[in-house]
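Structure ticket #2291
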Amino acid sequence: MNKKVIRYIIIFSLVIVVAGFWYFQRNAFSKDILKLEILGSDTTEVGQKMDYVLKYKNNGKISLTNIKLTFEFPENSLIEDNKIRIEQKLDDIYPGEEKTITFSGRVLGQENELKKAKAWLEFQPKNLKAKYQVSTTQTTVIKFSPLTFELDLPSKIETEKDFSFSLNYFSNIDYPLSQLRVKIDYPSGFEFSDSSPKALENNEWQVPILNKAEGGRIRIFGKINGDIGEQKVFKASFGMWTEGNFVMLKEATKGAEIIKPTIYLSQLVNGSSDYSANPGDFLHYEVFFKNIGSSPFENLFLAIDLNSSLFDLTTLKSLNAEYHQGDSSMIWDWKKNPQLKFLDENEEGKVEFWINLKEDLPVIKPKDKNLVLKDSISLFPAKEEFSIKVSSKIDLDQQAFFTSDSFPSSGSLPLRVGLPTAFTINWKLKNFYNDLRNVKVRATLPAWVSLTGQLLPRDSSFLFDSQSREIIWEVGEVMAGQGGNGSDSANLSFQISLVPNSSQLGQMPEIISMARVFGDDTWTQNEIESETKTINTGALSDQGFNSTQGIVQ
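Resolution: structure written out below.
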């Protein structure tokens, strides 16, 4: 064999040896040497706390160093620090050593959705330069969602007619949910008009933090155009924003058939189709029904339900209706009402009833403002719900004091002719049901009374016209519920000085006229007002005061 061939054989053998060594070094550690697994439940519920136990063991005979762990929660999980992906350095793993690390989070998603957790371990065998990586996953199925989301929609809707429907939601998750949204996809032909609460867009609403056993309702108003018999499908979704993504939690889909209108319902309250009520109002309801179909109706029943605790049901009165005193429902049947016995094409009928609105409505929390009176009318196949707005109520408390914490007192009681005596006037506002704006208080000072210049709060918008002697307090905005349920009220204190003249000897002079408060109701757009009584020196509010002390001596 010549030398050249031998040289080639030697070189080839060296290459094989080097390659074999490199291959052995790179592959000496299989996945069996470092075992990595995620232990966790195979099933879960939406929002339920999940513990992922990461278990790893060195099955080899060499220590493992430079270990980097990466754990990734299932997509869209709820984590306390909002870190879906966690990376951390681990201590060396000695031969035979086994350790566990637990990661906790809450899974979000829809029922039957698969959620996958992932983990990686990068390591380097001691005294070797090569680096290795092992990985594993764990899949959990969402078997149940403790969320309820329903689309309450009529199965039949008349074309080009106003109607309403609701999106109802409820949570039984043992964890508060935030960043919630409700969205809806409307079918073609739907025209959005309004919603309660107000929408961010015409088809999206923000939902406040939802705790366990809490829920809510979104009411949507509009009308739809379409061909008779056409099916219109509404699709709504309930979810939350996390990490910039909208996570779907529940979906609701429902269809409605377009039908031809046959009966038209309308009503007037105190002669108006857009009436705004005031606490204590006497209300006269006129309900009209008209056959707009192509055939007559016979033997009809008309039912009205008053859906508000603001009505004084003990005052309900109606002709030809069946109801019990204190009930909220009335029924008119065809046996007592000829127009219900036979309603021909284009013929219109009417029923009516009378009822009082309560004088003292329940004191509300600020979030419960903007009261409405609702009544629903059913005359098969038609059904309508009507509502009228209720104006707010504002009270002004006007008091006069000789001794006050606001300002030092001066003068004397009983009063003396020609000698000044100082009094403190306190005004306190209490607003009940709706937000008010442009609120002002007006009163007049008699000629024998003057202002001392003492005023609290000092930055109040307080005006005095020396010619008309009229005082004006420009309050501005007063929120619903302000001054009630222990909340801070709008207050003003000012000091006046009264100098009795000789003609007032033996009398109780007037300190300040009756005060009138008025402002614009932002809910009903009506102006509301309230008045107080005039105060004289015999009507002070000091503790232990006797009216005879107010007589001028």
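Closing remark: Residues 17-27 have pLDDT under 50 and may be disordered.
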